[in-house]
């Protein structure tokens, strides 16, 4: 039986930390009260949820009352974007600005708003995978309702100029939302200093459990409820709170934010080492800007190789990673992110994402660097495309 | 998406990988844009497939279908090899995820293309034996 021994897919999800698990356990066992109940058991749960809310608020630099717990990052994105759009439409503003390489939770929310008659401007991200602030400025119109740009890209790890976009939106009086699911715990965020009006995050990317997210909303704005029902989340998001997950998220975000500098110092060393070694291989490309990226995330394209094959070979060696090839995306095209930075299809198919966490060790990197070049050579030896590439033939591209 | 044990076995230990130096029938189908290319090398003697090897650029299913298809035609007469269907390839692998079925079509087409090349080299029009080869599988790609 195969076993994953080296986990390098932390952008997909992370393991629950011991701190988080220990904080959650009482709320899975003895403290099972409903936070809406009046008696002690219920109050204990309500106190725990409030404590977690304060932990999130402290981590983001906002007030407790601006934090809403949701079911996941995608829910936070859906809620922020759709509710803001419909709220602003009543004021005659039906234009939204975003980037071409947002997460599908954002892009598909916007696609559904387009069907309702909203107009969306999709900004380019160029070959370095970074939005230009001047492009945002040029796209803002009198009827712009919302700017939504991700803090850091999930596939290639590039960091966007969020404080600059925040300042611009403030100056222009446009609401600014950022999907910070990948950035929290990797980049220093302060929503007030950085003029962020709304921010989405997810617990399971920072060592909390799956199924719990947060939407921060500046108190200036009162979003319509995402879920109608009871009075939970100040009547904005009904449904009994996922108390253990919320408690875990509070601990996770505190640990993540406090540990940013230490973690990044460690992961930058790993990242540089991986880059230096992997880029020695013939016809390999690093996707996205080498400097303006989160140290935890690296994305390479190997010419002549298909990404899923690469993942399966790594899996046979106990290493877990990810790819943006069509065969792993489940559609005809490779990842929209890789295409957005200008990669041709055949190079985007050969992509590999390596994403690290606090738990990543030097031994993990040793193992990756021992195994990966051998796999690349093996796959290229059996690739007719590689034969065409090294002979300098341009294979038919339909 | 989960692959059968048979697929994983053929992926991890592909049979008949490589090239045949003196192959007398070579066929290549698929394209780089779609993310898979399959190339079959055949050594044909007395209308029998004496040897077969393949090279594949593609996903796990593409490698596994190539591998099992070579096993299924090795040592077989040409008319029998031409009867190999993508369905038979899928069955031999204990099934493929729906999004990967096109890979089995590619294996079937690669064999046909290699046999067609053999007939052409012999100065024989391959069309009556092989029919039309559709190497553009993109339309049926990835479960759409």
User: What is the alpha-carbon Rg of chain A in Å?
Assistant: 22 Å
Number of helices of chain A: 14
Let me know the number of strands of chain A: 12
Alpha-beta classification of chain B: alpha+beta
General shape of chain B = globular
- Helix content range of chain B: 40-55%
Q: Using DSSP, what is the number of strands of chain B? A: 3
Strand content of chain B: 15-25%
Q: Output the helix-strand order of chain A.
A: EHHEHEHEHEHEEEHHEEHEHHHEHH
Please provide the ordered H/E string of secondary-structure elements of chain B: HEEEHHHHH
Number of helices of chain B: 6
Mean of all residue-level pLDDT scores of chain B: 90
Write the SSE topology:
The complex is a heterodimer of chains A (398) and B (144).
Chain A: E1 6-7, H1 18-28, H2 40-60, E2 67-70, H3 73-89, E3 95-99, H4 104-115, E4 119-123, H5 133-139, E5 144-148, H6 162-172, E6 175-179, E7 198-202, E8 213-217, H7 243-258, H8 260-278, E9 284-286, E10 297-302, H9 307-316, E11 319-320, H10 326-329, H11 336-340, H12 345-348, E12 351-355, H13 362-381, H14 384-390
Parallel strand pairs in A: 1-11, 3-4, 3-5, 5-6, 6-7
Antiparallel strand pairs in A: 2-8, 7-8, 9-10, 10-12
Chain B: H1 5-12, E1 25-31, E2 36-45, E3 48-57, H2 60-73, H3 78-82, H4 86-92, H5 101-121, H6 127-130
Antiparallel strand pairs in B: 1-2, 2-3
């Amino acid at each position: 039986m195969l076993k994953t021994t080296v986990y390098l897919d932390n952008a997909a999800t992370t393991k629950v930390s011991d701190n988080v698990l220990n904080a959650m356990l009482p709320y899975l066992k003895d403290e099972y009260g409903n936070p809406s109940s009046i008696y002690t058991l219920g109050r204990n749960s309500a106190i725990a949820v409030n404590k977690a809310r304060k932990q999130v608020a402290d981590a983001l630099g906002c007030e407790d009352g601006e934090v809403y717990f949701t079911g996941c990052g995608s829910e936070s994105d859906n809620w922020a974007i759709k509710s803001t759009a419909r709220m602003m439409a009543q004021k005659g503003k039906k234009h939204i600005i975003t980037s071409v390489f947002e997460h599908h939770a954002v892009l598909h929310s916007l696609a559904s708003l387009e069907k309702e008659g909203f107009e969306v401007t999709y900004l380019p991200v160029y070959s370095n995978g970074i939005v230009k602030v001047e492009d945002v400025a040029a796209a803002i119109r009198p009827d712009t309702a919302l700017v939504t740009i991700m803090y850091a890209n999930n596939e290639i790890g590039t960091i966007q100029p969020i404080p600059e976009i925040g300042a611009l939106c403030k100056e222009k009086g446009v609401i600014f939302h950022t999907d910070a699911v990948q950035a929290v715990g990797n980049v220093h965020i302060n929503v007030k200093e950085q003029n962020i009006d709304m921010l989405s995050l997810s617990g399971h990317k920072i060592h909390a459990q799956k199924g719990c997210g947060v939407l921060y909303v500046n108190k200036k704005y009162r979003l319509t409820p995402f879920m109608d029902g009871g009075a939970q989340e100040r009547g904005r998001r009904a449904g009994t709170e996922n108390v253990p997950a919320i408690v875990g998220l509070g601990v996770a975000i505190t640990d993540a934010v406090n540990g940013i500098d230490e973690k990044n110092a460690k992961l930058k060393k790993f990242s540089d080492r991986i880059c230096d070694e992997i880029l020695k291989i013939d016809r390999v490309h690093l996707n996205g800007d080498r400097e303006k990226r989160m140290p935890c995330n690296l994305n390479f394209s190997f010419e002549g190789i298909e990404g899923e094959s690469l993942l399966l070979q790594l899996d046979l060696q106990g290493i877990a990673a990810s790819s943006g090839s069509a065969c792993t995306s489940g559609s005809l095209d490779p990842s929209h992110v890789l295409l957005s930075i200008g990669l041709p299809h055949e190079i985007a198919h050969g992509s590999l994402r390596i994403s690290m966490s606090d738990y990543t060790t030097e031994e993990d990197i040793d193992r990756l660097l021992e195994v990966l070049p051998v796999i690349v050579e093996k796959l290229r030896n059996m690739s007719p495309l590689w034969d065409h590439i090294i002979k300098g033939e341009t294979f038919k591209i339909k | 998406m989960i692959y059968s044990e048979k697929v994983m076995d053929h992926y991890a230990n592909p049979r008949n990988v490589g090239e045949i130096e003196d192959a007398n029938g070579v066929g290549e189908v698929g394209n780089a844009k779609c993310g898979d290319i399959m190339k079959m090398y055949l050594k044909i003697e007395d209308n029998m497939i004496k040897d077969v090897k393949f090279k594949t650029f593609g996903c796990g299913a593409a490698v596994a279908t190539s591998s099992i298809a070579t096993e299924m035609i090795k040592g077989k007469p040409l008319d029998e090899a031409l009867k190999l269907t993508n369905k038979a390839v899928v069955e031999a692998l204990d099934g493929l995820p729906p999004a990967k079925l096109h890979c089995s079509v590619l294996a079937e087409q690669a064999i046909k293309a290699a046999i067609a090349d053999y007939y052409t080299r012999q100065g024989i029009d391959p069309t009556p034996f092989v029919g039309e080869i559709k190497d553009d599988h993109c339309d049926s790609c990835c479960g759409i």
